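User: For my dataset I need records formatted as: sequence, then C-alpha cells, nothing else. Please produce one.
Assistant:
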Amino acid sequence: QNLSLIEIQCLSFLLIKQFPMSYDRAITVFSPDGHLFQVEYAMEAVRRGSTAVGIKGKDCVVLAVERRALAKLQDSRTIRKIVAVDDRTTLAFAGLTADARVLINKLRVEGQSYRLTMEDSPGVEYLARYLARTQQQYTQRGGVRPFGIASLLAGVESDDGVPFLYQTDPAGTHSRWKAQVIGGRNAKSLREFLEKQYAEEMDETTCVKLAVQALLEVVDSGAKTMEVCIVKRGGATENLDEDKLEAIVKEIESEQEEKRAPAGDS
C-alpha cells in the first residue's frame, strides 16, 4: 500500500513493456512515433463503412453512396446515407450511422444559428469548416472518442452559385475536391479509377454516369443498392429513383459489352 516513487516508476515501466499498445488507451496520448491510435481506429471504422463517391461537374456535384442490403422487413426510407443539412448544402457520409446522426444534428443547429445571426444561409465552406472543427475537438481532450465518420459535403456559397465538393475526416481536416471516394475497402482503387476517368467541365449526365460506374465496382445488385443525389446550381437537389438508376446501369453494362466484343471476335 505504501509504494515509494521509485517502485511506482518501475511498476509503470514494467506495465508499458508488458502492454506495448497502452498508447491507444487514451485519446490524448501520442505514441512515440507520433500516432494517435484512437483517430486511426476511427479511420478504420470509416473504411469498414459503405462507399461514398462525390464528383464535381461544370455546374453540379453528384453524390453517390453504396446502400447495404436491408433486412426483409426493414423500411428502406429510414436508412439514408445522403441527407440535407441546409437548403443549399447536402451531405453524404461513410462510417458509423449513429455518429453521423449526432454530427448532422450539430451541423443543422449551427446552420440555423448562422441564419439567425447573419440573416443568410451558410455557405458550404463554412459548414465544412465547422464540421471539421467539431471532429477535431473530439481528438484532443479526455473522456470522449473521435467520431467514426468521414463526410462529403456538396453545396454552394450563394443562391445562384456553382456547387463545390468538400471532404472531412475523423482527424478534423477538411479540403475541397474535384472528385473523391470515402469508405469501403476499395476506396484507393476507386480513387485511381476516378483520376483516370475524370475530366474538367463535365456535364450532369456524364458526372452521374461516372459516379454510378464507380459504384458498380463495389456493389453486386446494381441500382437496388445505390443512392444518388445531384446538387445543382443554387443548391437545388434531385434524388434519382431506382428506375432512372437502372437505366443508367444498363447503359453502362451495354457499353462495356460492346468494348469486350471486338476482343472476343478476334
